[in-house]
Amino acid sequence: MSTGSRMFPKSARLRRSSLPYLLLLPALVLELLIHLVPMVMGILMSFRRLTQFFIRDWSRAPWTGRDNYELVLDVNRPVGEALLRSFLTTCLFTLLSVGLCWLLGTAAAVFMQESFRGRGLLRALFLVPYALPVYAAVITWAFMFQRDNGLVNHVLHDQLGLGGADHTFWLLGDNSFWALLTVSVWKGWPFAFLIVTAALQNIPGELYEAAALDGAGIWRQIHRITLPSVGAVNQVLVLVLFLWTFNDFNTPFVLFGKSAPEAADLVSLHIYQSSFVTWNFGTGSAMSVLLLLFLLLVTAGYLLVTTRGRRNEHV
Amino acid sequence: MRWMPPKRWRRDIATRAENIRQAFPDPAERGRSAMRRTRAAAAAVTASLLAAAATACGGGTADSGGGSNTAPKELTYWASNQGPDLAADQAVLTPELKKFEEQTGIKVKLEVVPWSDLLNRILAATASGQGPDVLNIGNTWSSSLQATGALLPWNAENFAAIGGRDRFVDSAIGSAGAAGQDPAAVPLYSMAYALYYNKKMFQEAGIAKPPATWDEMVATGRLLSKDGKWALGAEGGNLSENIHQAFVFAKQHGADFFDAAGKPAFDSPGAVDAVKQYVDLMAKDKIIAPGNAEYAQNQSLQDFATGKTAMVLWQSAASSFKSHGMKEGDWGVAPVPVPAGGAPGTGTHTNSMVAGINLAVFKNTDNIDGSLKFVKFMTSDEEQKILNKTYGSIPPVKAAQSDPAFATDDLTVLRTTLGTSAAPLPQVPHESQFETAVGTAVKELFADAAAGRPVTTESVKAKLTKAQQQMAS
């Protein structure tokens, strides 16, 4: 008992110093398991020939070195060529979608800043696409875009008389790009609206009053007060929209099914299809790793440029 | 580095510690119990970590290969969607599973998996080793799944446990795995393609009998395709449906999509002609509505039921027609057309694939004896009659076929086709990939036809060559 009393201060100190780490350990372990381990496994898979013959016990799949990467990067062969085209399509699509989402969201948020009757109702209405389950929303669009019985063609051709009596295919061929873009913007802009609306709440009203007293018109106010004030929020908003849109799998999958038309073949769906066409999950993993690298590069570059730009502004 | 709480907490902590010290007069005792608690917490964290790691690596561990019997009172069964919707399947199967439970005391947990998910779910189960005990598979996947080694092989011993291999129709067993290997599954429901036609529309157009050859089909089709109505329906956006048709057309052109060595031969002249002939029904003959190019959710059946199209090529469509509001007798059934110069038969007069559903046992099952009992139950004469009657399919069990319920006009056509003029899809490990690659090629060709772009021998060949290159990688 007496030794125990003498030992106590030391063990107490040890206990006190290790306890925080012990408490952090579960979070650390979960982070590793949920985030890093799957990523590392994906990277490992990309160096193997993981076909249907090995998926049951994929530790037996043979190592192939750089073969998977050479295959998907060789743009003179069908696999690489298709990946490149899909990548470029995705870039164009993301650019347009993020741009439109941001523009619509910001414009709507600025208009909703003034208080008027029915503002709450309108705000709630604007958020509906964001609140709907993706599958339900997109499958509805798929029905609307149907050639023979779809609402879009009915309105365009039968009621407005645009483009002649022949119905247009929206889900096949080149038009599918515009169909996909429409659904993506419809689904994405309420998020931009929500975030910008929240950011606008932080701008003190005196700024606008002062500007108005000095004779600044509405455009000047938006340009000089509103936009600079939400700059930090916009930086994150655009990045998040970019990552979500670039990686969007649900929208094209629900709209087009397993194989999207070439014009709307986004890279995430393309990777899925490539993995399942050949049941060669190694090639699919190699494509995913390349995509991950690309997104990392873009994100890092974007943050570097925008953060430096803003810092200069404040100096 | 030692973690130190910020200064403002320290006073608070000190006060609380003092309170605790007063509550526990012996500090040594308190210290030890706290140590024990800390150690217990550490052990718990370590244990859960190890357990999680073990689960994560579950897919990588090799297993004994034949299943075990560690959970003898329970089975999990993945059923495919055979009825009009998932709820209908639940309603059909639940009483039968109850019967099985009464006979054997084994409780079967049923999950009806939609077709869009089934193959992915099976692949995920294969990769993780965590899956059902017994499952339905599309019979065309048999060889692909056989190659993964995830399914229990049906050797003589296993067949003996369910009453023997010769209880089943040969062609059905032939579509349960690669030739020369033990089948990966046993047949459960058999189906074949037939030509369904709308009697009233035929009457109005003055057509006496359904077309028996493709020339007759085109001639009849031109009579029917007018005033916003069309002769034939197709599911141009449905990859599997495209494959089933392309396969039969290829057979009729004396071609195969895989050569004798099991290598893809998608762009052989015969295969190109076959695919072109099918797409030409829309592109050149104009007896399929262009809108069908984007159909992938059985819209063609709805068009048929509402009188927009006069014919469809389908397998066991009767129950779907009824669910769309048609009455028995509104439609007629005939064999699928063949090339001129002979009745449906083998070789170039093949007019259907051997369609159907197989029942497989997952090798990782923890109730292998129960699984075999369940397969025996599902393939028993009595259950075969009940289930196939309900689903409008043909029993692959010979003894069950004699039931008068399978002698209706509809089912007689299907039964004859299965018996005399149906061929199984290529039983090669790459079959599933073939469905996706060539199915997509046909889908793109239909899109071309629908948009009015020319579909030529060259354009068909280019698409099929591309599909083959995807496979070769």
TrEMBL record, chain A:
Recorded superkingdom: Bacteria
Main location: membrane
Alphabetized UniProt keyword annotations: Cell membrane, Membrane, Transmembrane, Transmembrane helix, Transport
Compartment list: Cell membrane
GO biological process: transmembrane transport
Keyword Cell cycle in record: no
Keyword Transmembrane helix: yes
Sequence ranges assigned to domain ABC transmembrane type-1 in this UniProt record: 87-302
Protein topology in the membrane: Multi-pass membrane protein
Signal peptide: none
Family: Belongs to the binding-protein-dependent transport system permease family.
Designated name of the protein: ABC transporter permease
Species of origin: Streptomyces roseus
